[in-house]
Write a structure and sequence with these properties.
The chain is mostly helical and 125 residues long. It is 54% helix and 3% strand.
Length: 125
Amino acid sequence: MGGRAEVHRGDRLLLAHGRPAVGSDLCPRLSGERRVSATAGRRPTVVFVGLVLATCATWWLGSESTPTGGGFELAATLTIVIAFAKIFFIGRDFMELHAAPTILRSAFAVWVGVVATAAVALVVV
């Protein structure tokens, strides 16, 4: 270790000379066994797959061969609605807003709705 004297206790290198290897016990609130739900990691995966499918749908809507019949307004409106739905799910599930206070979750949902409505109005008008 570059000129420093290494202090060993048994086979382990001590990080704090003269002190115990572990500073203190864990907080009592953290002691004990914890069970992990089998479905805990499932929701983010489902949301991620949904986001990928929504991205594919918007890409398909922007292509030449869509069922909108070349209707720019309909394709643009659907693309904007899908984009803001994606924003909502990303904010709720990946930015941890699902665990935020109700007022913050509500403010985010209202913001997404208002801005999405304004964006659609700009395309339609």
